[in-house]
Design brief:
Blueprint: E1 2-14, E2 18-25, E3 28-34, E4 53-59, E5 64-73, H1 76-79, H2 82-98, H3 105-121, H4 125-139, E6 159-161, E7 166-168, H5 181-192, H6 205-222, H7 229-237
Parallel strand pairs: 3-5
Antiparallel strand pairs: 1-2, 1-4, 2-3, 4-5, 6-7
């Protein structure tokens, strides 16, 4: 028997009443078959929902089969809020997209849990989503330079450019873009923020929207990826 803790990120229907759950652990992504999970009398009917953090006890080798599980965290406040649910689904899609890469799962898994805990309890959920996306780029080795020019390390007269990989000084700016200095400062603060400390700042909607556009563009250029949840996000909030 194998036991491990992780977060259910996705479910796939299997036959009439069963399902396969993709669970993200500190060893990476695992797939777990849960027999009869969709039956009303199943002990796993509610506990096997996406976003639940659980401890699984499984058997088998090629495809792990669930024997028992216990819930560590429901993230109830996320489920009660359609916007927070969309935010959480967005970052879960990102994790699923990079889970097969050489990313450090022992660092990403606990960070994902901490971000979901913050989204669950805070009124500043969108800023924790942005923080997650910026720090995920670091774990992928794709992080933008934010505090100094990527070429000469100058910290003066910086301009943010997605195509240039972040901040560039006037001398080394190859692709002029229209991102604001306030965005560069916000991204830098979020990137270096310690998630164990509360975010207490108030950010105007215009800057929040600009940061969203910047991150979308960055992920499209360097990962060629955009989550499906972004379309829902756009429909709900308009950015």
């Amino acid at each position: 028997m194998e036991s491990f803790q992780g977060i259910f990120l996705k479910q796939i229907p299997f036959k009439e009443s069963s399902k396969i759950m993709h669970i993200y652990t500190d060893e990476g992504l695992k797939s777990v078959l849960i027999h009869g999970a969709k039956r009303l009398k199943s002990p796993f009917l509610a506990s096997s929902d996406v976003l639940n953090e659980v401890i699984c006890h499984t058997s088998g080798k090629d495809l792990l089969t669930l024997v028992d599980l216990s819930i560590v965290e429901h993230y109830d406040h996320i489920r009660e809020d359609v916007i927070k649910t969309t935010f959480a689904q967005h970052i879960c899609e990102l994790v699923l997209h990079v889970a097969d890469s050489s990313i450090d799962h022992k660092r990403l898994k606990p960070f994902l849990s901490k971000v979901l805990q913050r989204i669950n309890t805070t009124d500043q959920a969108v800023l924790y989503v942005y923080m997650f996306e910026l720090k995920l780029l670091y774990l992928l080795g794709l992080q933008p330079s934010l505090k100094q020019c990527l070429i000469c390390q100058s910290s003066k007269d910086l301009t943010l450019s997605v195509l240039d990989g972040g901040a560039r000084c006037e001398t080394h700016l190859a692709h002029k873009e229209t991102w604001s200095e306030e965005l560069r400062q916000l991204a830098s603060v979020l990137y270096y923020h310690d998630i164990t400390n509360d975010i207490t700042w108030t950010i105007d909607e215009g800057l929040i929207s600009e940061c969203r556009r910047f991150l979308d563009r960055y992920y499209e250029v360097y990962l060629n990826y955009r989550t499906k949840s972004r379309n829902v996000w756009m429909g709900l909030l308009g950015y």
